[in-house]
Specification:
Radius of gyration: 16 Å
Largest sheet: 7 strands, mixed
Order of helices and strands: HEHHEEEEEEEEEEHEEEEEEEEE
Strand content: 25-35%
Number of strands: 20
Shape: globular
Distance between the termini: 43 Å
Number of domains: 1
Structural class: alpha/beta
Helix content: 10-25%
CATH class: Mainly Beta
Strand order of the largest sheet: 3-6-9-14-17-19-20
Number of helices: 4
Oligomer: single chain
């Protein structure tokens, strides 16, 4: 099932290998979220072990939650405030110099619209790509399959349901471009 998940195909999440990988991410997330906030070396060690990559001079303030961890990459000099959720069933790529406000959700998981397969626990995912120097305001939700172009600002509370180009300000639910930068 892991191969199906990584390929973006329908899969069943309670596969034993996926359950083991999710449990690993939960253990490491718990360790990170309960660490002494002044233990910068230990915190970096845990995030480096948990994530696909964790850039130089970056910070994620706890609590931080993810499904698998290895599907999330976090660029250099990037910052995430408290409460980041990265449902990284598919890849979540966060660029360099990104600023993420509190309680942001990056949601790659999708589910079938037909009730039968959904009842049978089938799901899939689509990647999220966040370009360099993006700012996501507090409470932003980024939906599956979205790419946000470099230098873009997304206003607090916005729900990003489709791609946003580079160098714009977008707000609302669904987020829409209100001006170019």
């Amino acid at each position: 099932m892991r191969d199906r998940m990584l390929a973006g195909d329908l899969y069943i999440a309670d596969d034993p290998q996926l359950a083991e990988e999710s449990a690993r991410a939960q253990r490491l997330s718990h360790e990170y979220n309960t660490m002494d906030p002044t233990d910068h070396v230990g915190r970096r060690r845990v995030l480096t072990e948990l994530l696909g990559s964790f850039g130089e001079d970056s910070e994620i303030r706890p609590p931080f939650r993810c499904d698998y961890g290895y599907q999330t990459t976090f660029g250099a000099r990037s910052f995430a405030n408290w409460g980041l959720v990265s449902l990284d069933v598919a890849r979540v790529a966060i660029g360099d110099d990104v600023q993420i406000g509190p309680n942001v959700q990056l949601l790659t998981a999708t589910h079938p619209l037909d009730p039968g397969p959904r009842r049978d626990k089938w799901e899939a995912a689509e990647p999220i790509m966040i370009g360099d120097n993006v700012w996501l305001g507090g409470g932003v939700i980024v939906c599956p399959g979205v790419t946000i172009g470099e230098n873009t600002v997304v206003g607090a509370g916005s729900v990003v349901t489709r791609d946003l180009p580079a160098d714009v300000i977008a707000v609302g639910s669904p987020a829409r471009v209100i001006r170019e930068l």
